[in-house]
């Protein structure tokens, strides 16, 4: 299981989600703390009033004068959790729901009995009343001649926690809605922010399909260097390809003169009685001219890649295969829509499909099928036969130039490698697999022509 997503949008969304959750959790904790202090303040005011009344009832000798005790209404009613306690060296006194466990008193500071108590503030704490109720207490140490007297007043914590819980429910709901809004905003931001990457991918696809020579350079600042490097790489590859094509063109030009001389010598009487040698020379000359034309067309300014109707090319090639392999009873099933067209030179398409069909016809027992369909910006062509087929290891060997897996017949083992090379040169690909009939299936992907 991957903890880090593979996509950039997934990573950015994960980081945003984690930071948003942490921020919302911190906000909930902070607001809860502030709210708790706010609701506790009201209880503290009641307890501080009771502590002040009890403090005034403590005499200088450390004894509580119960005649001066005037309980607040909450303490007089004897309600659960509301109670007080006074203790010192001269005795212990309590009222209401007495506090049996309270915070430890502050250490004795040995303050003089007559010190001014007006600025002394009770300190908070937690305790337990005799009824078992958890209480919030306020405690004050009163110095007397007999030593410090600890005055404690407490009230139930539920009195403060109940309104806090009521306030936290809508607060948490609001934070949850805020989190959802942040998630939607983050998703929209990622979709908008990563749009230039999607456009750049489309531009690279246009270059690969031959619809453009460069990717646009008007990119955001972060992608502009990448676009520049891509264009530099495309220019470098084009320059190297042009250099190689010039060598091919020079080689083809170098062969034209010897071929012309050979044709003239063969035309002399008696040198080629049946004309077969002249036909071979003419075939070689035609191939040289064809590759010269390809070199010129691929050169800068040579024009866009040609568009070829697929159905007509397949029909012509199937007719030719029936004549070439007239001695074999092979039936051909063709399913190619007439509107399908590919961005491939007609001669390249004939050579490419011709090699595949010739291979299928030579190995088929009784049937060869050709199907084609459009898949987004490509056309998929399937050529299958019902022959013996090839194993995965044999398929890898079949695409190696000069390797013949079947020594019967007059082939030289270059048909499938040439088809693969032509497919790749035209922006496509060739794959071999086992057909449903058990024979060999050649899957050809070629760039589709625009409608």
Automatic annotation (TrEMBL):
SUPFAM superfamilies cross-referenced by the UniProt entry: ATPase domain of HSP90 chaperone/DNA topoisomerase II/histidine kinase
Cytoplasm as UniProt keyword: no
Reaction(s) the record says it catalyses: ATP + protein L-histidine = ADP + protein N-phospho-L-histidine
Record has Transferase as a keyword: yes
Subcellular location: Membrane
Annotated spans, Disordered: 93-117
Enzyme class: transferase
Chief location of this protein within or outside the cell: membrane
Domain of life of the source: Bacteria
One GO term describing the cellular component: plasma membrane
Signal peptide (residue range): none
Protein name: histidine kinase
Domain Histidine kinase intervals: 250-450
A GO molecular function held by the record: protein histidine kinase activity
Transmembrane segments: 167-190
InterPro entries: HAMP_dom (IPR003660), HATPase_C_sf (IPR036890), HATPase_dom (IPR003594), His_kinase_dom (IPR005467), TCS_sensor_his_kinase (IPR050428)
Residues of the HAMP domain: 191-242
EC number, as in UniProt: 2.7.13.3
Biological processes annotated in GO: phosphorelay signal transduction system
Biased composition (Basic and acidic residues): 99-117
Keywords: Kinase, Membrane, Phosphoprotein, Transferase, Transmembrane, Transmembrane helix, Two-component regulatory system
């Amino acid at each position: 299981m991957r903890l880090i997503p593979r996509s950039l949008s997934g990573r950015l969304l994960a980081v945003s989600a984690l930071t948003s959750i942490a921020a919302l959790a911190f906000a909930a904790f902070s607001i809860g703390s502030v709210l708790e202090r706010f609701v506790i303040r009201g209880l503290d005011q009641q307890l501080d009033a009771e502590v002040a009344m009890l403090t005034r009832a403590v005499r200088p000798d450390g004894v509580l004068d119960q005649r001066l005790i005037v309980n607040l209404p909450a303490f007089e009613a004897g309600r659960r959790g509301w109670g007080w306690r006074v203790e010192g060296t001269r005795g212990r006194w309590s009222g209401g729901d007495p506090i049996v466990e309270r915070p430890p008193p502050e250490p004795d500071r040995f303050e003089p009995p007559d010190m001014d108590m007006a600025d002394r503030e009770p300190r908070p704490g937690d305790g337990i009343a005799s009824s078992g109720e958890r209480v919030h207490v306020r405690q004050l140490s009163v110095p007397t001649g007999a030593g410090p007297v600890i005055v404690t007043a407490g009230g139930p914590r539920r009195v403060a926690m109940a309104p806090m819980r009521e306030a936290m429910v809508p607060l948490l709901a609001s934070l949850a809605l805020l989190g959802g809004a942040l998630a939607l905003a983050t998703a929209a931001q990622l979709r908008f922010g990563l749009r230039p990457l999607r456009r750049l991918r489309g531009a690279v696809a246009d270059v690969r399909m031959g619809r453009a020579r460069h990717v646009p350079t008007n990119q955001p600042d972060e992608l502009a260097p990448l676009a520049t490097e891509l264009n530099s790489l495309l220019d470098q590859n084009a320059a190297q390809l042009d250099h190689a094509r010039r060598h091919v063109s020079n080689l083809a030009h170098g062969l034209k003169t010897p071929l012309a001389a050979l044709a003239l010598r063969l035309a002399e009487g008696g040198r080629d009685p049946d004309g077969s040698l002249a036909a071979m020379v003419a075939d070689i000359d035609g191939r040289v001219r064809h590759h010269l034309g390809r070199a010129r067309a691929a050169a800068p300014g040579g024009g866009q890649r040609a568009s070829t109707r697929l159905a007509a090319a397949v029909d012509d090639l199937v007719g030719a295969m029936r004549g070439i392999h007239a001695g074999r009873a092979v039936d051909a099933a063709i399913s190619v829509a007439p509107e399908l067209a590919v961005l491939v030179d007609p001669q390249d398409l004939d050579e490419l499909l011709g090699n595949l069909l010739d291979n299928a016809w030579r190995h088929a027992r009784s049937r060869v099928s050709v199907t084609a369909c459009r898949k987004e910006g490509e056309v998929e062509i399937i050529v299958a036969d019902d022959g013996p087929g090839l194993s995965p290891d044999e398929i890898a060997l079949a695409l190696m130039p000069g390797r013949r897996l079947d020594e019967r017949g007059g082939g030289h083992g270059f048909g499938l490698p040439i088809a693969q090379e032509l497919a790749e040169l035209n922006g496509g690909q060739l794959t071999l697999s086992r057909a449903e009939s058990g024979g060999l299936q050649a899957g050809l992907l070629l760039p589709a022509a625009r409608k």
